[in-house]
Amino acid sequence: VVFEVLILGSSSATPIYQRHPSAQLLNIHERFFLVDCGEGTQMQLNRYKIKYPRIHHIFISHLHGDHYFGLMGLLSSMHLQGRTDEMHLYCPKELQEIIDIQLKYSDTRLRFNLIYHFTDHETSKTIFEDDDLTVETIILNHRIPCTGFLFREKPKKRKLLREKLEQYHVPREQYSALKSGQDYVNDRGVVIPNEKLTDDPKAPCSYAYCSDTMYDERIIPQIKNVDLLYHESTFLEDKADRAKETFHTTARQAGLMARKAEVKRLIIGHFSSRYKDIYPLLEEAKQVFPDTSLAQEGDKFIIE
Ligand SMILES: [Zn+2]
Ligand SMILES: [Zn+2]
């Protein structure tokens, strides 16, 4: 079962030094979720051979251009390719106006429906849910309304132990009750405890995307213990004042967030164009949280 994050863009503000503005593609159980869509995202999708029709859900954190300037181009290409499947957009409500006006003045009527799910930047909400996954918004602290996204698998069913089922002659129609944790009572009224017949399921996987934001510990309870945290890290700590003024985070602060939230792994990204070499950002975050990686175009992070 797949749960992976592909980095399409890692730059803040402008494309520079081969770095592209923010975009990531999540593959969760073979469903594709695009998270932010900076300029050039479709070029990056082409580069990594991602077929556009596979994407049905696009999440936009906020309306700074480095997070959505690629959206109109991508939607337009999907239209030209003849797409008819609806596209779900999870975004600030103002994005609809921005899209509508571009469609209006180009006299374009998309062949597919855009279904909007507006984010609320004051209260965290579940904005996507299906059989095995939920996506919640994370309230971030940025210059304009901005939400992150928390992707979390639902708790999985217990695993049946085939040889034990045979040993205790458990009828097939009991399997589904066993998977949800019930004990088995045989025809003589003997209770066989569930843990004799099943094994613990794999822990649900989780991924938190936090860009853009200033350092804000109010985020911690929601992202506690996630398997993988992406946190923006626009500056080095010697630019902490600049980070605060612009509502961004330093590498050290991103490391602190990861440590305090006791996450398993951290990815840092959204690097300022002032840094041609981004390894000092990695070193700084690692001093606080050793299991840190840089978000770099083409990198794939697998959660197991
Ligand atoms: Zn940004
Ligand atoms: Zn921003």
**Helix-strand pattern, N to C?**
EEEHEHEHEEEEEHHEEHEEHEHHEHEE
The kinds of small molecule bound in this structure are: zinc ion
Morphology: globular
Within the largest sheet, what's the order of strands?
6-5-4-3-2-1-18
Distance between the termini: 9 Å
Largest sheet: 7 strands, mixed
Class derived from helix and strand content: alpha/beta
Total number of helical segments? 10
Name the beta content range: 25-35%
Let me know the average pLDDT: 95
Q: Helicity range of the residues?
A: 10-25%
Radius of gyration based on Cα positions: 22 Å
Oligomer: single chain
Number of strands: 18
Low-pLDDT residue spans: none
Characterize the structure shown.
- It contains 10 helices and 18 strands.
- The protein is an alpha/beta fold.
- Bound molecules: zinc ion (2 copies).
- One zinc ion is lined by residues 12, 22, 64, 66-67, 212, 270.
Summarize it:
The chain has 304 residues and is α/β, with parallel strands linked by helices. It contains ten helices and 18 strands. The radius of gyration is 22 Å and the shape is globular.
SSE topology sketch:
Blueprint: E1 3-9, E2 23-28, E3 31-37, H1 41-47, E4 55-59, H2 71-80, E5 87-91, H3 94-105, E6 114-118, E7 126-129, E8 133-139, E9 147-153, E10 159-160, H4 162-167, H5 175-179, E11 184-185, E12 191-192, H6 194-197, E13 198-199, E14 206-210, H7 220-223, E15 228-232, H8 240-245, H9 251-260, E16 265-269, H10 279-288, E17 292-294, E18 300-302
Parallel strand pairs: 3-4, 4-5, 5-6, 14-15, 15-16, 16-17
Antiparallel strand pairs: 1-2, 1-18, 2-3, 7-8, 8-9, 9-14, 10-13, 11-12
The structure holds zinc ion (ZN) (2 copies).
